[in-house]
Amino acid sequence: MTQHTVEKTSLSLLGLGAMGSALGRAWLAEGHGLTxxxxxxxxxxxLVAEGAKQADSAAExxxxxxxxxxxxxxxxxxxxxxxxxxxxxxxLVNLTTGTPAQARARAEWAHERGARYLDGGIMAVPxxxxxxxxxxxxxxxxxxxxxxxHRETLAVPAGTRYVGRDAGFAAxxxxxxxxxxxxxFAGAAHAFALIRKEDIDPASLAPLLADWLAAMAPAxxxxxxxxxxxxxxxxxxxxxxxxxxxIPTFLSTAEEQGVSQELLSPYFALMRRRLAxxxxxxxxxxxxxxxxx
Length: 293
Ligand code: FVH
Prior knowledge:
The chain folds into 2 domains: 11-172, Rossmann fold; 184-291, N-(1-d-carboxylethyl)-l-norvaline Dehydrogenase, domain 2 (Orthogonal Bundle), CATH 1.10.1040. 49% of the residues lie in helices and 12% in strands. The chain contains 13 helices and 8 strands. Strands 3-2-1-4-5-6-7-8 form an 8-stranded mixed sheet, with helices on both faces. It binds ligand FVH. The site of ligand FVH has 22 residues, from helix 1 and helix 4.
């Protein structure tokens, strides 16, 4: 090794599905020593051809390195895969998608077995892994010490955002952002449905939709400001009363176009409920209070 060469941390990776394989490939490409394990052993072949060592069992993979990354289907598969492994002294990073409560319980479970624990929520799809310009990143929460110790290694496949010591926070941020994404997809689905039977090319609507959604997205900063201050009338541009008055237009247009109202109706119902509470001067922020039980 030359004076300027920094040895890369070796690690073990459990789970070689689409995401696990992409993660493994990124670490190998950066020169990290990698031991891999997958329930279906054959799926390790491509990474072994690229230089990974294959462990015969999850326990063997865990024993091979102190940094152990897990990227399996769900929390149950993590439990099953790690049940026979000795986690004492390991730095366990769990990138499996789960709920905040599952992450907190998994952190406790790992601590009881003598491991440090970091939970991750991946904000990327496999083709974004190892390609920094795509902007993919991973939320991390749990042991801050573990995060700082392995930050460089964890930053190889995707960007890193540490969101707190509470092991559940990575999952919470992950699910919050993905939930907003599904709301956006739902709105876009309704928009495409409205033009579906017309002589309008969906490809001509798509850029208009993308630009409009991007123009509206910064409104979330105003929402955050109102939530912080508790004043939902602060900086209102389009009042709740005005927007509720427009609801019949949206519902009638859907009916005219032969499109179900089922995606829009729940949100409109909440807007109407808030207006009925006498909050017509507010923004849409009050809907959030109706959601929180
Ligand atoms: N792929 C994506 O677009 C998303 C992007 C955001 C993050 N998710 C989450 O990442 C986790 C892994 O996802 P994946 O894409 O790698 O998923 P699959 O390709 O379906 O691979 C699943 C792996 O899990 C193994 N597995 C399943 N059950 C068990 C079990 N009981 N014991 C041990 N391993 C298990 C499976 O093994 P095999 O079927 O090949 O034997 C795969 O390695 C996930 O949480 C996403 O939500 C991905």
